[in-house]
Design goal:
It is a single chain. The chain is of the alpha+beta class. The chain has two domains: about 15-170 and about 225-315, Bira Bifunctional Protein, Domain 2 (BirA Bifunctional Protein, domain 2); about 325-420, Rossmann fold, CATH 3.40.50.800. About 40% of the residues lie in helices and about 20% in strands. The strands form three sheets. The protein has an eight-stranded mixed β-sheet, with helices on both faces. Strand 9 (about 265-270) and strand 10 form a beta hairpin. The two termini are about 45 Å apart. The structure holds histidyl-adenosine monophosphate.
Length: about 425
């Protein structure tokens, strides 16, 4: 048997119904906030991610699917969507618009150690606002994300907020932190000992118990950000209040991508275990310029689809089938009538299926049950001669003979009743 690659999952029905529901809700909410969809390639030149995400990040150092194509060009399966959206924004001169509000849905690839909520192919719904530095935009985009979670019925989540400062104040903090960490070097895990020089901010985000204890009294970034960054952060908080969004401040939240400036955030849930962020993002004011575009700001987020689906499944079991109809036919004449009814129901957009002749009545009823049909229509010679049909509610088990004419209307009425309950 050939199996799928480790960390690459099939998403099967009925879970795909839940995924479609999530994607549909995102499209609906994002549209109201003025966002349009962008579709970028799943593969890019490696240098885009190396430059965009940062050479010393875990993603670029050890998690990318990078290989040479047949022309010996180094290409990479996208580990995230922001760098590609910014590349497209520059390449197609979308910067000529007053601002670009773009969203994307699709697979991302990271060679991480697979565990619950962490996969090598995973899916994101992401959104990016390019061209606005105003703190109101941070709050408005977060409001959109929270409105989306509300629409799909996800509660029990927490918005954790931080500011990572800018290119002027962060180096000052970085040095201070480096000094602090150097004094405690021996007590840190091997990975963090190495990161003191390359990426010290990541050390305070390390999940190892030893490192958490050692960095407990590490200097806080919020004590080091400059006045401009402080004002921006205060304004973001003020706008969040106006938009009605609750949050908590987490100065230890540093992100795994280097492009962030000022506002960063994660939306977390206790129900997810160690991989507790269902969405994350922030502001990235230098990225467009870094990638060769004009000096414009950016803000965005990405939602992890697998983690979100996990939370929704645990909550309400909302993967249930749409109420369906199954037509059981015994005999050729019944089949002719059955196909006519089947086509009429499908034309009216009702989910309808038909039993296959070779299975007999028992086999067909079993199939109806297995497919989760809510109603079964049974047609035999006896029924046909009387122009009747047996109508069975599979949930209550109640069945009755009804007139074959107008059966579609009857089914539509019954389905509407079921949907109302
Ligand atoms: P990120 O924090 O790397 O940010 O990923 C965002 C979300 O994707 C995470 O919170 C998580 O839900 C999900 N995720 C990440 N890695 C995995 C994985 N291996 N398996 C399953 N789910 C995963 C970004 O990707 C940024 N591009 C977000 C952003 C957009 N920032 C600004 N704009």
């Amino acid at each position: 048997m050939i199996t799928s690659i480790r960390g690459f999952n099939d998403i099967l029905p009925p879970e795909t119904t839940l995924w479609q529901h999530i994607e549909g809700a995102a499209r609906e909410v994002f549209k109201v906030y003025g966002f349009s969809e962008i579709r970028v390639p799943v593969m890019e030149k490696t240098e885009l991610f190396a430059k965009g995400i940062g050479d010393t990040t875990d993603i670029v150092e050890k998690e990318m699917y990078t290989f040479s194509d047949r022309n010996n060009e180094s290409v990479t399966l996208r580990p995230e969507g922001t760098a590609s959206v910014v590349r497209a924004y520059i390449e197609h001169r979308l910067c000529n618009m007053p601002c670009a509000k773009l969203y994307y849905i699709g697979p991302m690839f990271r060679y991480e150690r697979p565990q619950k909520g962490r996969y090598r192919q995973f899916h994101q719904i992401g959104a990016e606002v390019l061209g606005i530095s105003d703190p109101m935009s941070d709050a408005e985009t977060l409001d959109m994300l929270l409105a989306f979670f509300k629409k799909i019925g996800l509660d029990d989540i927490e918005l954790q907020l931080n500011s990572l400062g800018c290119k002027n104040c962060r180096p000052v903090y970085r040095e201070k932190l480096k000094q602090f960490l150097s004094e405690k070097k021996e007590q840190l895990c091997d990975n963090c000992q190495r990161r003191i020089d390359t990426n010290p901010l990541r050390v305070i985000d390390c999940k190892s118990r030893k490192c958490v204890e050692v960095t407990d009294d590490a200097p806080s970034i919020l004590d080091y950000i400059c006045n401009e960054c402080k004002t921006h952060f205060e304004e973001v908080k003020g706008y969040l209040y106006l938009f009605g969004a609750g949050y908590s401040i987490n100065p230890r939240m540093v992100r795994g991508l280097d492009y962030y400036t000022r506002t960063t955030f994660e939306i977390t849930s206790d129900k997810l275990g160690s991989q507790n962020a269902v969405a994350a993002g922030g502001r990235y004011d230098g990225l467009v310029r870094e990638l060769g575009g004009p000096d414009v700001s950016g803000f965005g987020f990405a939602i992890g689809m697998e983690r979100l689906a996990m939370l929704l499944k645990e909550g309400s079991g909302s993967t249930s089938h749409e109420a369906g109809i199954f037509i059981v036919c015994i005999g050729k004449e019944a089949e002719t009538e059955g196909i006519r009814i089947l086509k009429e129901l499908r034309e009216r957009s009702l989910r309808a299926e038909i039993g296959y002749h070779d299975k007999g009545i028992k086999g067909q009823m079993k199939m109806a049950d297995k497919l989760g049909a809510r109603f079964t229509l049974i047609l035999g010679d006896d029924e046909i001669s009387k122009r009747e049909i047996t109508f069975k509610d599979m949930k209550t088990g109640v069945q009755e003979k009804v007139d074959i004419e107008g059966i579609a209307e009857r089914v539509i009425d019954e389905i509407a009743q079921v949907k109302k309950v």
